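Project standup — Tuesday

K.O.: blocked on the structure for the chain from last sprint. Re-posting the sequence here as requested.
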Amino acid sequence: MNKLKKSLILSFMQKYSELLIGFAASVILARLLMPEEVGLYSIVATIIVVAHMVRDFGVSSYIIQEDELDDQKLMAAFFVTCFWSYSIALILYVNSVDIAGFFEREEIVSILNLVIINFLIIPFGSVSLSLLRKEMNFLALLKVNVGSALFGAVVSVSMAYNSFSYMSLVWGSIATTAMTVLLSSFYRRRVELVTPSVEKIKIVFKFGSKSSYIHILFMMVSQLPEILIGKFFGMTNVGLYSRANGLVKLFHMGVMQGIIPVLLPHLVNRMKVSGDIKPEYLKSIGYICTFSWPFFIFLALMSENIIEILYGARWTPAAPMVTWLAISAAIVSIYSVNPHVFVASKNIDLDVKNQSISQTFSLLVMITASFYGLEMLLFSIVISRLFTMIVSVYFLSRAINVGYTEVCNALFKPLSVSLICFIALYTLSISNMILESSLFIGTLICGVVFVVTWILSLYLVKSDMLDLIAKK
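H.V.: unblocked you, prediction finished:
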């Protein structure tokens, strides 16, 4: 078995284990917490996600792409991470009352003041995790991430059961971070505690200023819908959106987070060897869309059934949100690996321009749409993702000489597979079989038929996915 396939298997084992743990915890928590309670934590989580992008400051990408990584550079990366982590913790603490005032919910103060503990401890684990990824030590990453996810889930569920309300989610996140720091520090290779030179720190800052700008801008726009919903449409709708978004993100957590940790180091290594990563890029988007598009089709058509089975009837108003988010996520699948291609090909300046244009457009469209109602806001997310895809491929063409025609050709087979799956599922969903069955049995029948149809369609269109599966 080649190293890439072995790494992918370990990475997928990790992500599916995390996904199973998180999924089980979310199902239990949906029955212990009300949508409004979930909404309160989700609002803070959106702010924290953006803050984490600032905290990382591109250090993770710097460590992975750096060709000659020594202890001096590692300590410089650690120093930069500490600087940003503690600065953000202080900013959040000082501004917690103002943030709570913006959303008109005083509970946000206590959530923010507690969740900043993560920023105080995470620098001691983030560099270690990046080092494990660079070395492609996915067995260690499996142990670290699964162990911390399990610990955090147990804490959240236990505290929710004992009536700690939304604070159970806060303590769960802290528990996850603490366990991640402990385990990642244990499994990484030994690093000498040396004082980094000013020059090494400047190198990290120079790379990080571009990388972090890209990630911060991207995450701000990604988290913007929840902030707008919280401001204009209430915490209950935030909770519903969070649940819908979490369901759509199952693909990202179960597939993309299994691919990306392997893909970036692989592309960097391929760039060193051949200097051309266009074939790898085209294969990657073909594989991803062959998985993702059928998944989102099933999710969109069966959203109400799935939500009621998993979370209960009180969460079914989230079903229309799932449909809009599934469409936007299907578009994102086309350009989801592009940022990593920019990094691997050392064209991060092009990605800065790409993100500046696309995310500014998305920001303006979503803010404008929020004044016309919740459904218009959801529709604007689809429009913004479509625009981002077009702009991203344009700038990627300048980085690795790939054109729109080549991208469309790479997506022809995934599109064919998806259309076959859509026809089969739509036909089945409107038939008497599903209407006469119980909710669970009917959804299960659709799911089994859909998976069988997907597998058969791979053979029918002679998908490249079959070559990947057969490759040793």
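K.O.: great, moving the ticket to review. The mean pLDDT is 80. The longest helix spans residues 198-232.
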